[in-house]
Amino acid sequence: MKTDLRTQSSELEQNRYPPVDDEIDLGELLSVIWRGKWIIAVITFLFVLLSVIFALKQPNLYRSEVLLAPAEAKSNGGLSALAGQFGGLASLAGVNIGGQSTNKTQLALEVLKSRKFVASFIEKHNILPDLMAVESWDIDKGVLYDPEVYDSSSKKWLRDVEAPRIAKPSDQEAYKIFSDLILLKTNKETAMITLSIVHQSPLIAKQWVNWLVKDINKEMRDRDVVEAQKSADFLSKQLEDTKIADIRIILYKLIEEQAKTIMFASVRDEYAFKTIDPALVPEVRDSPKRTLIVILGFALGLVFSCMIVILKHYIRIKD
């Protein structure tokens, strides 16, 4: 008797809550999409139209690049043998011998990306307007500035910004924009370095790449000369205060090494990097990829419109 009651109760529950079919009928789905083809067509067309307008409004950007190789490091010669005997004084004087050598190439790359170097580079070459105010570039007229940002005739900044910013862009603003334009890539197998700049003007892109290579070589050369001169001065003072013959010989050799560093830096322009393939004025734009933008717009419009049609159909069924 109890079994019959349970069976009847189960049948009543099944009649009250019929099983739900969670499987998607592909044929029905295609039929829904076909019935809503005009909605899909209109929405997709709007997406394509907006993507075309967006693509046409994007300025052409040109990439100029140079291939660099790390300059060969100057050999320490016989000084490495002095490390065990006199490494403490050499370290105190700032002289790198033996295992104390540093990766000059990596240091140069980090300096190139530093805020101090970039700010100095922008100020030295007076490129702030070309960095922050360019609206477009014309092959006949050259660079055209945004009249609401910068007046090229009076060389006055006209930006309307909120405090604490002022009309003239700060070093922090300029650094952020410049960092987006510069690209450094290192080939791990060959150790070759590709330095590239993207800009609306292909002429400016090439010029900036050349300036960067020249300036970073000069910066690293000047740093080594200053360090070598300070080390030589320190060692000369120690030489005056030392009467022990063996120590004086070592000090002479250390001073000689610093003199070689200064001489080596003075006669070598490509101090940190050697140019393997120089920068050229690009003839073809690097971006935007307008065809790709339109294709993506079409794909997004198609997917979005199909989702709307399907969602509208199932909402109507539930109601």
From TrEMBL:
Keywords: Cell membrane, Membrane, Transmembrane, Transmembrane helix
Domain spans labelled Polysaccharide chain length determinant N-terminal: 22-124
Chief location category: membrane
Transmembrane feature ranges: 38-56, 292-315
Any matching Pfam family: Wzz
Topology within the bilayer: Multi-pass membrane protein
Source species, domain of life: Bacteria
Subcellular location: Cell membrane
Protein name: Polysaccharide chain length determinant N-terminal domain-containing protein
